[in-house]
Write a structure and sequence with these properties.
The structure is a single chain. Helix content is 55%, strand content 12%. The protein is of the alpha+beta class. Helix 2 links the parallel strand 2 and strand 3 (94-101).
């Protein structure tokens, strides 16, 4: 049941459409979140992106064959949007599923109403007898098109009309996305962090020795520059602090300004 999966990212589609519209319902905020998370993982050298799994779904209304195709197209639409807006994503990172009609979601919604009287009070049109009839049809009718037709006949169609405007309306948010990745151990970061601890204890020579082993990593440059400067290697120290400042390191920029002010 996708709607109860914690942390899932999902977008909404208009009824019977597979075009992904950023301005439809809450899509703008969700798409921004999806792109930000994906790009962050893609850009982080400590992360290894395994796959982006996308599951398309359609609501239970309409012919099953059509809805299977619709769910496929919705998954493709979300994939294309992500691939278009995230740098460096290859096609083989995506794993797409067309989940067809969201019967599991719908059954779960009906079951929630049966067991939660407070929730049921929000839908007084749906009696317990109607809810149980729906559950029996879902559980015992294997043909999905016939299953839908049986639901449509409950109370001469009035129950299904109500479902269309309530529970089934939310089934149209049917593009789910999950991202699978690992965090790769970063031994260089461990070295830099340990060197910084040594510098707080004024052990600049030991820190400098450690940082020399990772001096090709730009993250080390500011700390290496300081440790060099503090051990008497001022010219080389300023060189590394300058390199870090040119990379946009805020601490290095401040350090460089302070050193220049002392020169003046």
């Amino acid at each position: 049941v996708m709607r109860k999966e914690a942390g899932d990212l999902y977008v909404n589609f208009p009824l019977n459409q597979s075009e992904l519209l950023p301005d439809f319902r809450d899509n703008a905020a969700m798409l921004e979140k999806i792109l930000a998370i994906t790009q962050m993982i893609q850009d982080d050298s400590r992360c290894r992106l395994h796959k982006i799994q996308i599951i398309g779904l359609a609501s239970i209304e309409g012919p099953n064959r059509h809805n299977e195709d619709l769910s496929d197209q919705r998954a493709i639409a979300l994939k294309n949007y992500v691939k278009q807006h995230v740098r460096g994503l290859s096609e083989n990172k995506f794993e797409l599923y067309g989940g067809g009609e969201a019967w599991a979601e719908f059954r779960d919604q009906i079951n929630d109403l049966l067991i939660d009287t407070k929730l049921q009070s929000k839908h007084p049109t749906l009696t317990r007898l109607d809810l149980q009839r729906m559950m029996d049809i879902i559980d015992n009718e294997g043909n999905l098109d016939i299953r839908e037709q049986k639901l449509r006949r409950i109370n001469d169609g009035e129950t299904f009309k109500y479902l269309l405007s309530t529970l089934l309306a939310d089934q149209r948010n049917s593009g789910y996305l999950r991202i699978y990745y690992d965090r790769v151990p970063d031994s260089r970061a461990d070295i830099i962090n340990y060197a910084l601890e040594l510098m707080t204890e004024k052990e600049f020579e030991n820190a400098c020795e450690l940082l020399q082993t990772v001096k090709d990593d730009s993250r080390s440059w500011n700390a290496l520059g300081i440790s060099l400067y503090m051990t008497g290697q001022k010219e080389e120290g300023i060189h590394y602090i300058t390199l870090a400042a040119e990379q946009g390191n805020a601490d290095a920029i401040r350090n460089l300004k302070q050193l220049n002010s002392h020169k003046e």
